[in-house]
Amino acid sequence: MEESVSSMLDVQQIARICHETNRAYCESIGDFTQKPWAEASLHQKESAVNGVEFLLEAWAKHERPSAAASHTSWYAEKIKAGWKHGPVKDEVKKEHPCLVPYDLLPTEQRMKDYLFQSVVGAFEMCEQGER
For residue 6, what pLDDT band results from cuts at 50, 70 and 90? Predict the structure, then answer.
């Protein structure tokens, strides 16, 4: 019998795929600041894992959070960790230009939330299809 996706790929692995998808998207819009997963900071990795867990937990309860809800979850996590809005992403100063309400994000930044949800959702849909 074939293993299900969730047993083959754990949350860390899904987070890595989400991170690399985000990195590829960022490069497509001219943002080359994202490091590969292997070089990413611990806080970036934890943030991706938290995002995956947020979605999987919601979907397990048959909730379907919007892209805005994903952003709000990420936003709350950053604020709790001491981050604030700033003109450019700066891990030392803990500043990030996307620390604004979802409706104030430019479309190109909103796309990141849709891509993240799509990647996690692909694993969830595949697992559902396996049942």
Answer: very low
Cα distance between residue 27 and residue 70, in whole Å = 22
Please tell me the distance from the alpha carbon of residue 114 to that of residue 120, in angstroms, as a whole number.
10
Tell me the C-alpha distance between 105 and 118, whole Å: 19
CA distance 115 to 68: 12
10 Å Cβ neighbour count for 123?
22
Show the domain range for 119. Answer: 5-130
Q: 30: buried, middle or exposed (CB in 10 Å: 19+, 13-18, 0-12)?
A: exposed
CA dihedral 21, 4, 65, 57 (to 10 degrees): -110
Identify the pLDDT of residue 8. Answer: 45
- For the chain, the domain total comes to 1
Transcribe 104-118 into DSSP letters.
GS-HHHHHHHHHHHH
pLDDT at residue 128 tops 90: no
